[in-house]
Amino acid sequence: MKYEDALQWIHGLHRFGSNLGLERVTKLMDLLGNPQNKFRSVHVAGTNGKGSTAAFLAEILEAEGFRVGLYTSPYLEAFTNRMAINGEDISQEHLVQLVEQVKAAVDQLATSELGHPTEFEVVTALAFTYFAQSAPDWVVVEVGLGGRLDATNVITPVVSVITNIALEHTQYLGDTIADIAGEKAGIIKHGVPVVTAAQKEDALHIFRKIAKERNAAFYAVDHEFTQEVTSSSLDGLTFNYRSPWQQLDDLHIQLLGRHQARNAALAVAARELMPIPSSPDVIRVGLAQTRWPGRLELFSRQPLVLVDGAHNTDGVLALRAALQELVGERKLRLVIGILGDKAVEEIVGVIVPLATAGVIVTTPDNPRAADPYLVAELARKFAGNVTVEVVASIHAAIEQAVNATRQDEALCVSGSLYTISEAREVLKRIYATKIETSM
Fold this sequence. Notes:
The chain is built from 15 helices and 17 strands.
């Protein structure tokens, strides 16, 4: 089997939809020898910030000298981004071997009364088999959707981590904060400590209640531990951290936006709760060297070019706050491409008023993409006298936006991870060329 054939088989499983539940994946793991029980893990759920928090924690552990697996979704550049050890993606050859190994169990399960596993269930089986075979010291596992019925919830971690909570995937998770918190709280295991960056009282109440029922020690940001940002710029953030165990001042992270300090603090708290001693100096090093592409990622300072995968209302609110601080007096041009199953009007209403230099609406490469002309129509309601136009091709939209943005202006690309995935490739090529030609 070739790598392309393996990918085609994996993505072909999309036809089985999103069918939440643990019966199929539990049986699939059993057929594979229960790889999820062969490595030590930390489980990360939440609405926004899961990937950043997981990356911070993985980098801290790696700085301590551990071999650290990281399982995340979706990917930005290549499918192999989804499973990595010490920052190195799984090789194409190893992925092919795993597909050949796992496919027999998938086919066997498909003929049972449980039916065919979903794409995410199979990808999770691939990842867990990979980690079981590669034997890292720790694996940081990001939840796909929700928590309670998510395929990753077959693990029993040493710490459960829950980032902020907001309305998302309401067709699956419920239409209130309490409903969604209840689904996220499904990762809380008996006797396993849990730490959260949730701020909404409805969510905190649910988490505290379930943690108490499951005899799980509970810690929340702004309560049991705190973070205070002391500086924020295009060079990153500096913040102070306080917990029952230690005080760490002047922690620095490269990731932009004040919301990232909460994610970093959450990762530090999770590290403190792991059943192995930690070093303040190494925590500092791990945070400082963490990168997480596509989250307020800086491509150029002059003009200022930022890319961010905010794709729900809370995420875009955090993006707006960051842009207001980082863009300053510059005029801002926005390229935006949104999925149709998101809160499109809310997202547009939050971010478009900042775009004082113009708005370009484009189309994510996804069947769920929102009609760009409908998005543009909404954008005009919030854009004032600023020009709003549609350039359906992301490649063309980015090139047009870059060419139109003056040196003293700013450009932001956002709306969906599918939008920024392609946009990043174009921007990397443009700015690599600019750097080379200026040398």
